[in-house]
Specification:
Elements lengths: L6 H12 L2 H13 L11 E3 L5 E3 L12 H13 L7 E2 L3 H12 L2 H17 L1 E8 L5 E6 L4 E4 L10 E10 L5 E8 L3 E8 L4 E3 L8 E2 L1 E4 L6 E4 L6 E5 L12 H19 L3 E7 L6 H11 L9 E7 L3 H18 L16 H7 L1 H33 L9 E2 L9 H23 L7 H12 L3 H4 L16 E2 L6 E2 L1
Antiparallel strand pairs: 1-2, 3-17, 4-5, 4-14, 6-7, 7-8, 8-9, 9-10, 9-11, 12-13, 15-16, 18-19
Helix pairs in contact: 3-5, 3-10, 6-8, 11-12
Length: 486
């Protein structure tokens, strides 16, 4: 079977995608998450004695990236997925048990979900694809969005006609990258291989090419069976409608922090900023004189002349203040948690902790909205499989998602609050007991149950009869008709 997309067309789609603005912005998010900041490309220039601009290789040029974005992303993902009881919930005990096995208590799924949410924040969008595991259950794995290309006949189409997924498999003997390429449609997958910058060819290592989404054999049966998902089994998690990395609102602030911090390091490394006043210089190369001053810390004075050094103090306080402002704004506009104000946890109240988490909580709520829509797509496939396997008719409405981001609290303050509440409860019970000569026993027990948060209706039948009467509602006999009188 010959695929509609030919190798040259596949190459064209991949090359255009790599050069797209969307992938360029996503790659910058990856760079900053991995600590490759623009500061590492900085250069220092000067004007030489001939008036030409040259790079200054003698002056200190420290390039230290400060990975605020890495912290911002990891902090957000950890907070969104911090619930301990699982995300997938159902009021049906039998369905809940299956959901726990497939999702909540499945470490593989949770690890892949973490990568997808992380990738969505770093790049602006991330993918997860479905496949069948060894037990023929649907499983999911994160797919790097940098290697995913959606192919549509029209840009306005809701669904893509094909999806290209490529990744670097290994590095060959000649240090050439071996690239695997997969072209997915609604029923099968075409496999290709490419040596770096070489031709794209069909992958001969694949016995069945093209291959249906799932190929399997039943126990004791030599026949090969084929299945497909009925759709391209790739699902995208988007970071907002524009699918832009969470880096961009804070990138200028991070860059400025890098410049201020590295500038301070450069100032200290060079000891002082100095201006040299030279008189009587007869040499031909002023650059050599400057090099000797900076590198050798020594220079011969010209005949009949002199060299004077004018220094300025390192602007330490100004740079420190600017870095503090940048740091505050990075957490503020990145909707992150600045733990600087929570260092003294013993003195930090629960209200202060909750206030510190307010921006992170706001960001998490926005992510959770998109994440629920994403999880519905995964659930659709799994529910169909569960219904077919167990003969059920479960629907999407039978499952809901619960996110319980955890905000730490002050343990000492919690203990004090609990003690105060217990003391108030004891005082109210003592007040009720002081009225026992005025109130009847039933009312007394009801009031005490209210203070202890106990249901009176659940225990009233178990209470002893204070008068020792076994029948609270006895009947009387009418002597005239031998009947009973209520």
């Amino acid at each position: 079977m010959i695929p509609i997309l030919k190798p040259d067309e596949i190459k064209k789609w991949i090359d255009n995608d790599k050069a797209s603005e969307k992938k360029r912005l996503a790659q910058k998010g990856v760079d900053y998450y991995e600590g490759r900041h623009d500061i590492q490309n900085s250069k220092i220039f000067y004007v030489d004695g001939n008036g030409e601009i040259k790079e200054d290789t003698t002056k200190s040029n420290i390039k230290i990236p400060h990975p605020f974005f890495t912290e911002n992303v990891d902090q957000t993902v950890q907070y969104v997925l911090s619930g301990e009881e699982g995300i997938f919930k159902s009021d049906d005990p039998e369905l809940q048990k299956i959901l726990d096995e497939r999702f909540n208590e499945n470490d593989d799924f949770n690890a892949q979900l973490y990568e997808v949410v992380q990738g969505g924040q770093v790049k602006g969008f991330e993918y997860m694809y479905a496949y069948k595991d060894k037990d023929m259950h649907t499983a999911f794995e994160c797919a790097d969005s940098m290697g995913v290309v959606e192919v549509r006949a029209k840009d306005t189409a809701d669904k893509c006609d094909y999806l290209i997924y490529w990744y670097i498999d290994r590095v060959g003997v000649d240090n050439e990258k071996i690239i695997r390429i997969q072209v997915w449609d609604q029923s099968q997958t075409y496999f290709y291989v490419q040596t770096e910058n070489g031709k794209i060819e069909l992958d001969k290592e694949q016995e069945i090419n093209p291959r249906p989404h799932t190929v399997y054999k039943k126990d004791g049966d030599k026949k090969t069976y084929y299945e497909d998902f009925g759709e391209i089994p790739f699902f995208k998690l988007s970071n907002g409608r524009k699918e832009v990395s969470a880096l961009w609102p804070i990138k200028p602030l991070i860059d400025d922090y890098d410049i201020m911090n590295c500038g301070l390091s450069n100032n200290i490394q060079d000891t002082v900023e100095a201006l040299y006043f030279v008189t009587g210089f007869q040499g031909q190369n002023l650059d050599e004189l400057i090099f000797n001053i900076k590198a050798k810390k020594a220079v011969g004075a010209p005949d009949g002349g002199s060299i004077q050094q004018f220094t300025t103090n390192v602007p330490v306080e100004a740079r420190k203040l600017k870095m503090e402002v940048d740091e505050q704004n990075i957490y503020r506009f990145g909707f992150g948690l600045n733990t600087h104000g929570l260092k003294d946890t013993a003195a930090t109240t629960n209200i202060a902790i909750k206030s510190a988490y307010s921006l992170l909580d706001l960001k998490a709520n926005k992510i959770i909205i998109s994440l629920k829509q994403f999880l519905r797509k995964l659930l659709k496939i799994v529910l169909k499989e569960i219904n077919d396997e167990h003969g059920k008719d479960y629907r999407q409405s039978d499952v809901y998602f619960r996110f319980d981001p955890e905000i730490p609290t002050n343990a000492l303050e919690n203990a004090q609050i609990a003690l105060t509440e217990a003391q108030v409860r004891q005082t109210e019970i003592n007040t009720v007991l002081a009225l026992q000569d005025t109130l009847d026993n039933e009312t007394m027990v009801q009031l005490i149950c209210e203070q202890l948060d106990i249901s009176y209706e659940d225990i009233k039948d178990k209470l002893p009869n204070p008068e020792g009467v076994t029948d609270l509602y006895p009947t009387e006999t009418d002597p005239e008709d031998g009947g009973l009188v209520e």
